[in-house]
Amino acid sequence: MNGDSANIPVIDISSPTVEVAKALVNASSTYGFVFVKNNDIGIPPQDISDMFELSKTFFQSPVEIKEECSINSAKSGKNRGWLSMHTETLDPSNQKKGDYKEAFNFGEFVNGKADQPLPGPLAAREDDIGQFIDKCHNLCIKILDLFAIGLEIPESAGGPSFFTTRHDRSKGPSGSVFRLLYYPTLPFLPTDPLDIRAGAHSDYGSITLLFQLPGQPGLEILTPSNTWASVPVDPSPSSNPNPSSIPILVNIGDLLSYWTAGLLKSTVHRVIFPYAEENKGAQDRYSIAYFCHPLDDATLVPVPGPVVEEHVKRAGEEMNGAPMTAREHLNARLEATYGAKVKFEGSG
Ligand SMILES: O=C(O)CCC(=O)C(=O)O
Ligand SMILES: [Fe+2]
């Protein structure tokens, strides 16, 4: 733990040129994390603030309300609903105790409606949540389009629409998840150094959008030199902090890494507690994530085109074994993180 700040690039994708696409590929092959400026790219800052307000209202609700839609109940469906403290263990080979966080997972909406029961405070805002998810998905589509351009995928293989056709929600189900996260402050920090807010992991999907709030740090990435570096909430704060100017954090997940034979990095990250000397005055941390996944049946083989081919030659990367589908990969990862704590009763 060294607290150094990660130097994650900030990219303006508002005009989608080849240069922007190249910059995005370069940043993602170095850091696996990149900020995109939030200037007219489809997610108004006010919507983000409203979603954080809703998240606070929900997590501060009585436990019985949250429990109604527990991830453990058959009616919520697989990987959906409320996760109480310690339900998920993102780094099962090191953690003795599950993550010190709560979360609420929304699966894909169907015809604008949640395909799972929602507790009262969230049900009251179902339409707003559905629209926010659509905006997140559309931003992911813009970014995936740029990746295909930057990777120079040939027209014969789908060209710029290689990834977007594989993320076309009208064509079938995917594992995409919209998630509200809540990391309460504790009066005393746990004494076991293995205890953590969110254990070290990489994300399971194609890309993740992550929203954070000023004054609520804690996210760290594992750098290529194997040290932890903190991810700022706002990489270029002005003298007058303004939530509407905070860029959106984009994180490469496992699947884009498979698709590019490791050229794009699915970087390991975690969320730590405040340092002891800061714990007393620290705020709770709220974050919001949109995990964008391809269609369940998408196969994970390296994409054609000179960029990935040259990387394979240079790095001597090889893809071994039979190609996996997106769903097979997701199921394997979910099993590892929830272990015996979540029984997806009667739900595929
Ligand atoms: O809360 C955060 O900032 C990160 C959460 C995260 O990495 C995850 O849920 O996959
Ligand atoms: Fe993550």
Automatic annotation (TrEMBL):
Name this polypeptide is given: Clavaminate synthase-like protein
GO biological processes: small molecule biosynthetic process
An MF annotation (GO) of this entry: oxidoreductase activity
Annotated ranges, domain Fe2OG dioxygenase: 173-294
Protein source organism: Patellaria atrata CBS 101060
PROSITE patterns noted in UniProt: FE2OG_OXY
Keywords for this protein: Iron, Metal-binding, Oxidoreductase
Family: Belongs to the iron/ascorbate-dependent oxidoreductase family.
Record carries keyword Iron: yes
